[in-house]
Every structure is written in C-alpha cells, then in structure tokens.
Amino acid sequence: MADLKKQIIAQLNLKDLKPEDIGDDQPLFVEGLGLDSIDALELIVLLQQEYHIKLSNADDGPKAFKSVRTMAEYITTHQGQKTPK
Amino acid sequence: MQTERYITRSSRIRGYSIYLNSKLIYGKSPTAPGDFLNQAYQDFHINYPKFHKMDNMSKLGLLASEILLKDQLYKTRYQPYEMGVLLMNASASLDTDIKYYKTVSEIPSPALFVYTLPNIVIGEICIRNNFKGENAFFVFKQFDATFMAQYVTNLFENNDLEACLCGWVELLEENFEAMMLLVEKSGSSDAMAFSKENINKIYGEENG
After folding, report:
1. Alpha-carbon gap, residue B18 to B27, rounded angstroms
2. Range of the domain at A28
C-alpha cells in the first residue's frame, strides 16, 4: 500500500503530503484527504496507467475509492482480469 | 459628477521578480516558470494545498493575488458580493491547452482539462477569497489599460461593487508576467487615482 500511496500523491500533486500521512483506512474524499471530483477522475486514470484496470462500472467507484485499503483491494481483485465490454 | 476610485495596492510579477506597491520584495534567478512559482509559494508561506494542483497560469494569478491581498483587510471591509474581479491576458489558456493536447494521444488528463479555459484563474482566486461579485476575463493582443479602466469603472457604476481586483495574468511556456491592482472607492493619501495613465505607469514601471 506504500507504493499506492506514493502513486496517489504523484498523480494528484499532493506535494504537502507524505505516504505516511495517509492512513490505510482514512477516507479519501470529503472529510478525509478532501479530494474532489477531478481527483476521482485522476484516480481512474491512475488505475488505467499503472494497473491497466478500467473502472467500467461507475457504481464501483465509491466503494473502490473509499480509502487506500479499498483501492488496493480493488486492484488486487481486478488486476489481470479482462474488462467486460 | 465622476466618482473617484483609487488604486490602493498593486502587485507585479515579472522577470523572476515580485513587486508590491512598486517596491521589489522578491527575486530569483531564471528557472522554469513552474519552479519559480512553487518556490515563491513556499517563500511567502502561503498555505493553500490546492495551489499544487493548479496549472501555471492559475498559480501565477493566485500568487499575484495573495501578495496583493496579504493583509486581508478587504475581508473586514467588504461583503463577498461587493468584491469584483477583472483579468486579462494575451495567450488565454494556450500554455495548458498545449500540455493537455499532448496527453490526448494516451489518456487525457482530467486535471489538465479543467484548466483549459483562461477564466479558471478567476475561479481559483474567488474560491480562495470567497469573492462573489461580478467577474470577467478578456483576451487582448497586448496589455490594454484603457479597456481595463473603462470596464472596471463600468463595473463600479452598474453593480454593487465596493472594490475590484483587476489585472493582467499572462503565461506561455517560459514567458510570464502578472500585474494586479486593488481598486477601492476610498484610499489613503498616497493612493493613486484609478486611471489608464496610472495603470500604465504601474504596468510599465518595471518594464524598463
């Protein structure tokens, strides 16, 4: 998860944050890291660029991007799977 | 009878130097514009993490406005809807348009896309300062003090504005400059009258 935190910081230009500042279960949006809707799109880009995962079902977003841990679990589950058309 | 308005503060960023009220307050050796803007953000102790997500033009505009409004006196003087903003430049958002275009061949960047309009810099300044008054962004071939003076005067006369932030925020690749003025209905004895002559004077002072 440390690598994923580094990737999130780089992708979202969170230059004031270090990986250790982000808790594994800390909410990414609103009251947690305070990410916004554009950040959500950048996280989708990160999944595509780094892990070749396409978030094809929009309903998966809120669950997948709840925290770093849920994001890591989503990556683990979907890596290597073919994205359904 | 014509109502007087005053330029109560000015900020200027040009040639890797920053001026407040025409006095040099900061200078660095030439480097990439983004590096200069990030360094100035740190050196002026601005605490606004969203700065790092902005494109260079918004960084330039926000930095100029932070220096201009540093004492935050306007927050006690004016309601949000009483503060207007007028900005102008020559290159619109072309610097970011080019960067965004380069990402399109792979995965287009949403974070770059949102800055492919020049008026976004106004939005960033308004969000930061809670300004809710009339605002507009215009693109001209070159700096136009006559238009700035006329338009801001019109904003004062036809809106409920008590103050207006106006200026020039130009950035394209390695070239950048900004000038921002705070225009108010009253000013101290050393405030300049808001006129095209004085706007040109402030703009030109460091152009030498």
Report:
1. 6
2. 2-78
